[in-house]
Amino acid sequence: MHYIVPGAVNTQPRFSQGRPLLNPLAAKLQTYDVLSDEEIQILEGAVDRTQHFDAGQDLVRVHDQPTYSTALLEGWAARYKVLRNGRRQITGIHVPGDFIDLHSFLLHTMDHGIIALSPCWVVQVPHENLRKITETEPHLTRLLWMSTLVDGAAHREWLVAMGQTSASAHTAHLICELYIRLEAVGAASGYRFKFPMTQAQLGDALGLSAVHVNRSVQELRAMELITWQSGEVVIKDWERLVRVGHFDPTYIHHQREPR
Amino acid sequence: MHYIVPGAVNTQPRFSQGRPLLNPLAAKLQTYDVLSDEEIQILEGAVDRTQHFDAGQDLVRVHDQPTYSTALLEGWAARYKVLRNGRRQITGIHVPGDFIDLHSFLLHTMDHGIIALSPCWVVQVPHENLRKITETEPHLTRLLWMSTLVDGAAHREWLVAMGQTSASAHTAHLICELYIRLEAVGAASGYRFKFPMTQAQLGDALGLSAVHVNRSVQELRAMELITWQSGEVVIKDWERLVRVGHFDPTYIHHQREPR
DNA sequence: CGACATATTGATCGACTTCAAGTGTAGTGG
DNA sequence: CCACTACACTTGAAGTCGATCAATATGTCG
C-alpha cells in the first residue's frame, strides 16, 4: 500500500501518543477525538491508490456510483450542482484532510459532482474497506460519521449566510470558515492562506455574480479587513471580519472529546 | 425529459417479513434498506420516553448538550439558526419519522435550535443506547448514518434552490420535496397534504420576506400549479411544478438497497 | 510579444425588501 | 348572535441590493 506525503500540508504536529501523523486524513479526524495507533494503522491500511487531478477536472461526477470514497491529501476541491439552465452552485469547499465523498459509501449514487479547484492529490478508500471498518471499528466509524455531520453543519451555516446576510457578510463568512479549517490541518497560519479560487468560482459558491463578488471583496478591502492578491488572502483584522461575517466557529466542532 | 412520478418512488411494501411497522422511525429507515425483525426490536428497545410539544415550543435549543436524540413521531418541526440581528433562517423541515437531532449524539453541542411547527409527539433515544447500537449493530448504524447523510443532501439541494433559482422556483421546489417526503412515510397522498406553516415561517425557510413569499405563492396559484388554503396544499400539476422548481428527487435517496 | 483568462469599473434593470395599510378568519367573551 | 381581539394573509408604493450587459484594465503564460 503506497502512500504519498504531500509537502507543506501538515506542518503542525498532530500527535498520537508521541507519533507524528503523516496522514492529513487522520489529522482531520484527530481534531474530533484521539485516535489510537491501531486505529491510525487501520485507517492507513484502508487506503488504496493515490491519484492526481488537474485543476478543473472532475474528481467525481454526478450520477456516478463509485466503489470507493475519496479523501483529499493536497489541493482544493468543491462540491457542485448544475441546473438545467446552466447555473452552477458550489455547495461546499474542501481542503486537505477532508473526506470528499464519504457520502457515496452509503448513498451509492452521487447527487452532485466534485471538481478540483486546484491541482489535487487524493487517495481512494474502497467502500469494501469502509464497510469492514463499520463492522469492527465502532469508534473509527463514529468519527467518520462525525466528519459527515460536520459537513452538514457547514451546509446549514452556508444556508444562513446565503439567506440572511448581505453579499459582503457572506463573503467574509466564507473567508473565516476557510481560514479556521485550513489552520486546523496546518495549511494556514498567521492569518494568511493560499486561495486558489477565481472570483467567478467564489460567485458560484456564494450565489452571487462574479461582478458582485468583486464589489464585495473590494468592500472588505476598503474596510481594511483583508487583502487578496496573487492567490493569497491575508486577514488584516480577524475580530472585525468575524463580526462582519456573523461568523461563529461552533459549527466546525474542532474539539477533541470522547465520541 | 422524464420526471419521476411520486407514486412510483416507493412502491415496495414498507413491511418487514409481513409485520406492519408501528414506528415511523423504522418506517423511515426501511425506505433505505430492509431491516430485520431483530433490528426493528433493537431500535424500538432503544427508545426512551415519549413527549409532547405545542406548536412554537423549542424541542432542542441552540448550545444544548442533550444526552439523548429525538425522533419525530407526529407533527412537523424545523431546524433554525438566529443571527445577532434577529434574522432567522430555517435550515431544514422535519416530518414524522425523521430523526431530528441525531447529530447531537456525536457533535454533542447543538449548533442550532429545533422548533415545533405544529403540535408534536416525539420519542427520546438516549445517546447511551445509540452508542450501544454502533458497538454491536453495524448495519443499523450505517442506516442511521445514512439518514444524516440524506439530511445533508437536502441541505445541498436547498443551497442550490436558494442560490440559483427565483423565489417562486424555490417555493415550488420546497413543496415538491415536502410532498415526496410526506408520501414516503404515508403522511400524504393524492397530491395533497396538510401544511402547518405560516407564510412568515416559509419565508424564514426560503430566505424571503413574508410579503414576497405571498407573491411567489400567488404566482404558483396563477400558474395553476397549486392551491393552498386552510392549511392544506393541493398540487394541481405535479409535472409542471417539478419543472418550475427544478426538482430532481435523486437527493432524497428513497431506494431500498443493501447498505 | 500575442493570446487568453481574470479582475475591475460603469450603467441600467429587475427582483426582492421594507414600510404601511387593509382584508379575511378563527377564537373569546358578553 | 354579535363585538372584540389576534393573527395571518393580501395589496400597494418606494427603495435597495445584486444581476446583467458591456467595456476596459491587468495579469499570466505560451
Outline of the structure:
2 copies of one chain form a homodimer. Chain A is an alpha+beta fold and 259 residues long. The first copy, chain A, has helices at residues 24-30, 37-46, 103-107, 127-136, 138-164, 167-184, 199-206, 210-222, 238-244; strands at 15-16, 19-20, 50-53, 58-60, 68-74, 77-82, 88-94, 113-116, 120-126, 192-194, 226-229, 232-235.
Total of DSSP H or I helical runs spanning 4+ residues of chain A:
9
Oligomerization status of the protein chains: homodimer
Mean pLDDT of chain A: 91
- The number of E-state strands of chain A comes to 12
Sequence of strands across the biggest β-sheet of chain A: 4-8-6-7
Helix content of chain A: 40-55%
Shape category of chain A: globular
Order of helices and strands of chain A: EEHHEEEEEHEEHHHEHHEEH
Outline the structure in words.
Two copies of one chain form a homodimer. Mean pLDDT of chain A is 91; it is low at 1-21. Chain A is an alpha+beta fold and 259 residues long. The relative contact order of chain A is 0.15. In chain A, helix 6 (167-184) crosses helix 8, helix 6 (167-184) packs across helix 9 (238-244) and helix 7 (199-206) packs across helix 8 (210-222). Chain A has helices at residues 24-30, 37-46, 103-107, 127-136, 138-164, 167-184, 199-206, 210-222, 238-244; strands spanning 15-16, 19-20, 50-53, 58-60, 68-74, 77-82, 88-94, 113-116, 120-126, 192-194, 226-229, 232-235. In chain A, the strands form four sheets. The first copy, chain A, has a four-stranded antiparallel sheet. Helix content of chain A is 41%, strand content 20%. At the A-B interface, strand 7, helix 3 and helix 5 of A face strand 5, helix 3 and helix 5 of B. Chain A binds a DNA duplex (30 and 30 nucleotides) through residues 166-167, 198-200, 208-212, 214-215, 218, 230.
